[in-house]
Amino acid sequence: MLSNEELYNIKGGSVSLTGSLLTGILGIVNKIFELGRAVGSGVRRVHDKNICSYN
Length: 55
Fold this sequence. Notes:
Blueprint: H1 4-8, H2 19-47
């Protein structure tokens, strides 16, 4: 059994960059860019009054 002093001195593991972590981060970044593109396109269409009517 470890003493309290030994428990305080335990160092944790390091964070490693894995392929799945990088893939997840890139997926989030791509979604943010797609959202920005969609919002920008919508703003441009409203500004140019180029909106389809729903009649």
